Amino acid sequence: MPGLGTSFGRGAMTTALWDVANADVVVFMGSNAAENHPIALKWFLRAKQKGATVICVDPRYTRTASKADWWIPFRSGTDIAVLGGLINYAITHDKIHREYVVKYTNASLLVHPDFRFDDGLFSGWNEATGKYDQATWAFQTGPDGQPLADPTLEHPQCVFQHIKRIYAPYTPEKVSEISGIPVAEFIRFAETVCATGAPGKSAVFTYAMGWTQHTKGVQNIRTATILQMLLGNIGVAGGGIAALRGHANVQGATDLAVLYHDLPGYLGQPNEGHQSLQDFLAKTTTRNSYWENKPKFLISLLKAWWGEHATAANDYCFDYLPKMATSETYSHYDIFQSILDGRVKGLVVVGQNPAVGSANARKVQAALAKLDWLVVSDLFLNETSEFWKLEGMNPAEIQTEVILLPAAGPLEKEGSFTNTHRLIQWKHKMIEPMGQAHSDGWYMVQIGKRLKQLYAGSTAAKDLPIKHLVWDYDDPNNPDEFDHLKVLKEINGYDTTTGAPVTGFGALKDDGTTACGCWIYSGIYPEEGVNKADARLRAAPNRPDGWTEARADGSADYLHLGWGFAWPANRRVIYNRASADPTGRPWSKVPLVWWNEAEAKWAGVDVPDMLPVAPDQVHALGVRGDSPFIMKPWGLGGIWGPLPDGPLPVHYEPKESPTPNLLYRKQGTIPTMKIYDSEFDVWGDPQRFPYVATTYRLTEHLTSGVMTRTLPYLAEAFPRHFCEIPRELAQLKGIRNGDWVEVESARGKVRVQAMVTNRLRPLRVGGRETYVIGLPIHWGPKSGHVQGDITNTLTPQAVDVNVQIQESKVFLADLRKVEVGG
Amino acid sequence: MNLNRRAFLKLSGVSAASAAVLLFAEEREALARDLKASRITRAREVPSVCPHCSVGCGLIGYVREGQLVQVEGNPDSPINEGSLCPKGAATMQFAYDGVGRPNPLRQLTAKIRRPGSDRWEEIGIDEALDRIAQRIKETRDAGFVEKNADGLVVNRAESIAHIGSACIDNEECYLITKLMRALGVVYLEHHARI
């Protein structure tokens, strides 16, 4: 989540669900929590119960909207226009929390004098390469290397003046014209949200895939982070950005870097520009922040992986790590393109169903048929392992060898999940794996052991990373499982001399005497036999209705510090230093942390997110005691945040849009967006495909449905696929509720049943009536008790440059009634 | 507990709209009625976490004589305080379809689909793992990029990709990252990207 990482320093939800009950305003935008995170909704409704205003900004009247005080429909893909309008409103109506902005963010810093923004493009754009040169986006620094700043925020080159200028055109009228939100309604929305710009007031913004699945997904999130910092709403009770992640362990799988660009704990995957450990560290370590400790974390990781073979003399085996080509990305969609291109020949898929779950699904299926081999580990058969049975496939012509491993189910194994608010919780095995099933971890251990045997006789340099890999995870008590606690201890870190676990990442060293698999998780297994993920000490309820709420005197452990373990260092609300004023006194209505003058240390209801330095002192790492964002340079929140697509978010239209960009004439879509070159990557225009289509999930199902259409209760609860159609459009097209319709995009067609509703409304966009239609994504033709067409047949592989997530929340489609159907 | 239709709906908090489409077989209701509250008496409680969305609701599995007899929301969990959504309330069906009968869709053996074939064949787990390791080695060795055009060591196994997963445990994810990076795999991804 580079959106949050760029702004605050860590790519994770800033708050904990328990804390959102303290909010004065709750905004759901890009999240339909009632359906996709149903139990989480309770905490937002507790805020409402305590007097908060709950607003749902969504193209559809969702179940979340039904629980909110107020639903604001808008056109999918115009989030930055709306949020940019709020930024403009906050600045022009002087609603910002000035002291927070000046002291805690980089708003006062001066940007390079040559920085420009002109008609949709930032300075440094290179048309030939399709990339920005970011030189003019840098801060000005003095001879001492410290940034130049103007605490009055008046200097024309300071960040604040740039955002004031860039968002000035985002007037209520312009926002309305782009998004379809009436002017008066937008102003009321702005007034409500911006009222939290005062100390002691807070708003929480909640998002999920509704913000990420766009060609400018990261910038959607960045816009909200800027607004929230201007209002002083990050790190305070009831504030923050609640990023509701999709799957049970998507946060954990990200922390542990099952991602091409990263190493565990966000250390970054080196590329071929990094030819030595020192070179990599010099080029990638963020100075004047807690990241100055990165060498300790990386060397400890290399020690965990290559043990005694990793020495100071050989750069701790840094050479063993694969180095990415600087000109390439290796993302999800690159994988399928590279299979079609003949580069990738073998694919391992664990617990995932890309033949249904990935955008432009026909392209993904065609790619699978070109593989030499495919390994799938899953509980159930799915459209990925059985792609060769899909419509249009001729098995006789498909040379792919497919091996299916029966995976142990979630109730059949030990291990931990990291939830959406970074809380790591241990799961105990309820029953033995069914049939011959084994855990995916055991399969990985076994495959690794076999590979080590196969390479045992090799002396080739390329095989040393496998030969030397520390890979000893057999469970002495059970040959059919691996030793979970041994892996957990390695993730936590240990002393390489004594073998004893380290107590936390503060104990990690850069001299090879500690090993650590994921530094941010350090402290989870602080001593032999102590598994903090399994801690189950819940705070006592302090309300008659049985929950624990925050108290103004700081007496309630409402963040449940004894339940599970949250990274980093068991902090529940990160950046909580910002809940106190620059001198260390809480300025939020309920306190999170404070400077204890008598004992000369930080204390709090939460674990303080601060270096051990007094508010008026500067820590040796360059972070001041009055700067809360310790992972960012000088501890300052990144209102200004250079990313490959710009230092600030501005409005662009989706790749497929019914309207030109009404703010920037020259630049319609985001210039850095990536699209692919194959026969499957084709695009629709509004003449041929007049409707805006969006995709979503339902309470009863999860993504491609393999974990839900296979469970009878859920298959019965929501058996059929459908397309949600506004009543006015249905009338226009002669479609009645329950009719079969064909939805078509440039990439393909699906047949589903019509659900004609008032939950989608015609919107007035650019002076024209615009219709949005919606389709859930949970059906496939082969798996489960109930089947249906694959929605992702329609969606495009147009992806964000930062994270390569596809724009499946908005594309163009046509719709017609068909007489026959299933 | 008695998992009849009403209890399930209450437990899952689904709206009246979806109640209309939620139709249970008579047979399942009858079975559930017979079990009543007696189901969890003398059962061992095993705490776990829901495998569906990212909220992290606590589960309690009730295990009696090695048999899982019920899965409920964990009332001690400060996240869900005992409640579950429809998906969470259905987690027992990952193992059992209804009462005591294995979910018939679960894959319980390893299988192979050979090139050009239109069917699966059963194979043993060990044989499957041997085959996988062999194929990884042969594909890696054939497509390995040890140095780039400039002669710099890059150690990339570009011919192999790994996808998944956000549905498995941290310890498993760590093992995947560690093994794949040691092999030189650069095409390494999971759900977060989609």
From TrEMBL, chain B:
Sequence ranges assigned to domain 4Fe-4S Mo/W bis-MGD-type in this UniProt record: 43-99
InterPro entries in the cross-refs: Mopterin_OxRdtase_4Fe-4S_dom, TAT_signal, TAT_signal_bac_arc
Signal peptide (residue range): 1-19
Keyword Cytoplasm assigned: no
Domain of life: Bacteria
Alphabetical keyword list: 4Fe-4S, Iron, Iron-sulfur, Metal-binding, Oxidoreductase, Signal
Subcellular location as annotated: Cell envelope
Cofactor(s) recorded in Swiss-Prot or TrEMBL: [4Fe-4S] cluster
Family, similarity comment: Belongs to the prokaryotic molybdopterin-containing oxidoreductase family.
Cited PANTHER family: FORMATE DEHYDROGENASE-O MAJOR SUBUNIT, TUNGSTEN-CONTAINING FORMYLMETHANOFURAN DEHYDROGENASE 2 SUBUNIT B
Official protein name in the record: Anaerobic selenocysteine-containing dehydrogenase
Source organism (scientific name): Symbiobacterium terraclitae
